[in-house]
UniProtKB/TrEMBL annotation:
Keyword Transmembrane: yes
Similarity comment: family membership: Belongs to the CobD/CbiB family.
Domain of life: Bacteria
Subcellular location: Cell membrane
Keywords: Cell membrane, Cobalamin biosynthesis, Membrane, Transmembrane, Transmembrane helix
Official protein name in the record: Cobalamin biosynthesis protein CobD
Annotated source species: Vogesella facilis
Length: 312
C-alpha cells in the first residue's frame, strides 16, 4: 500500500513542480558518465578487440549503475526518511510534465503560424534534423517523441518503482540515460556501448508492451492492436516499435516514414493508420500519456488497497 501511495505523491509532485530547472541529478550523472568513458575508452581503439571493447562497456555499466542503486536501496530503508527518499527519487525519474510542456510548446508555435519556432522547439526533443520540416512533419515528429518518451520517461519508471521500489527506479533511469549517451551504432559506440544498449532493451521490454497496451485501451482498441501486431516487427527498435505502432493506431494517425538524421535520409516503415497528423493530434498524444498515467496510478492504488484488505 505504501508503494502505491508513494507513486501518487511522486506523480503529484511532478505535476505541481515539473523537473528541477537547476541541479538536476541526471545532469551530474551525465558528467560522471563522460568521465568514466574517458577513463575506460582506449586511446587507440583500433588495437582493441570487439570483446575487449564490450568488456570495457560492461565495466562502465557496473561502475555507474551499481553504487547509485545500492545507495537508493539504503536510503529507502532509513527509518521515517525512507518514504520521503522513495517519493523524491521517483519524482526525479518521472518526466510527465516536462514531456507535456515540450510538446505543448510546439503546439503553441504551430498555432501561432511560426513554423521556424516550431522546428526549433521540436528539435529539442527529437534527434532528427528539423530545419526543413513542413508543419505536418513537425506534428509527426512531436507525436512520435511523446509516444516513445511516454514509455521511456514515464511508464517504465513507474513500472520499475512498483516492482523494485526506489533502487529499481534509480537503476532504470540511470540505465536509460546511459543508453542515451552510449547506445549508438556508430564507430565509437558500436561495441563500447553495446552492453548499455542491450541492458536498456531488457529493462524496457515489459514496460514498453504495457505502455502499448495502455495506449490501445485508452484509444482505438481495434486499430491500435492491429498496428501493434502487424507493424511493430518492422520497426528497427524492439521496444519503440510496439509503443509507436500501438500509439499511432490508437490515435488514428500515420507516423514513421522518411526522416533525416545526421545528413542522411532514413526510410522508416509507416506506423499507424489513417491520415497524416495535425497540430491537434499532438494535444491528443499528450492526453493519451496523461490519462495513461492516471490509469496506472489508479490501478496501483486499487491493487495496494486490495492487498491491504486481504492481509488484514
Amino acid at each position: 500500500m505504501f508503494t502505491s501511495v508513494f507513486l501518487l505523491l511522486a506523480v503529484l509532485l511532478d505535476k505541481l513542480l515539473g523537473e528541477p530547472r537547476r541541479w538536476h541529478p541526471l545532469v551530474g550523472f551525465g558528467s560522471l558518465v563522460r568521465r568514466v568513458e574517458a577513463a575506460l575508452y582506449p586511446a587507440d581503439p583500433g588495437h582493441a578487440s570487439m570483446l575487449q571493447m564490450r568488456l570495457r562497456g560492461v565495466l562502465g555499466i557496473a561502475l555507474l549503475l551499481l553504487p547509485f542503486s545500492l545507495l537508493a536501496a539504503l536510503l529507502a530503508r532509513l527509518p521515517y526518511l525512507g518514504g520521503v527518499a522513495s517519493v523524491a527519487l521517483l519524482y526525479l525519474a518521472i518526466g510527465a510534465r516536462s514531456l507535456g510542456q515540450h510538446a505543448q510548446a510546439v503546439v503553441d508555435a504551430l498555432h501561432g503560424n511560426d513554423l521556424p519556432l516550431a522546428r526549433q522547439r521540436v528539435g529539442m526533443i527529437v534527434s532528427r534534423e528539423t530545419a526543413t520540416l513542413a508543419a505536418p512533419d513537425v506534428a509527426r515528429a512531436t507525436i512520435e517523441s511523446v509516444l516513445e518518451n511516454g514509455s521511456d520517461a514515464v511508464f517504465a519508471a513507474v513500472f520499475w518503482f512498483l516492482l523494485l521500489g526506489a533502487p529499481g527506479v534509480v537503476l532504470y533511469r540511470l540505465a536509460n540515460t546511459l543508453d542515451a549517451m552510449w547506445g549508438y551504432k556508430n564507430q565509437r559506440y558500436l561495441h563500447f556501448g553495446w552492453a548499455a544498449a542491450r541492458f536498456d532493451d531488457v529493462m524496457n521490454y515489459i514496460p514498453a508492451r504495457l505502455t502499448a497496451l495502455t495506449y490501445i485501451v485508452l484509444g482505438n482498441l481495434r486499430d491500435g492492436w492491429r498496428c501493434w501486431r502487424q507493424q511493430a516487427p518492422t520497426w528497427y527498435s524492439p521496444n519503440a516499435g510496439p509503443v509507436m505502432a500501438a500509439g499511432a493506431g490508437a490515435l488514428g494517425v500515420t507516423l514513421g516514414g522518411a526522416a533525416r538524421y545526421h545528413g542522411s535520409l532514413k526510410q522508416r516503415p509507416a506506423l499507424g493508420v489513417g491520415r497524416m497528423p495535425g497540430t491537434h493530434d499532438i494535444s491528443r498524444a499528450i492526453r493519451l500519456v496523461d490519462h495513461g498515467l492516471v490509469l496506472w496510478v489508479a490501478l496501483a492504488l486499487l491493487a495496494g488497497t486490495m492487498m491491504e484488505l486481504s492481509g488484514a
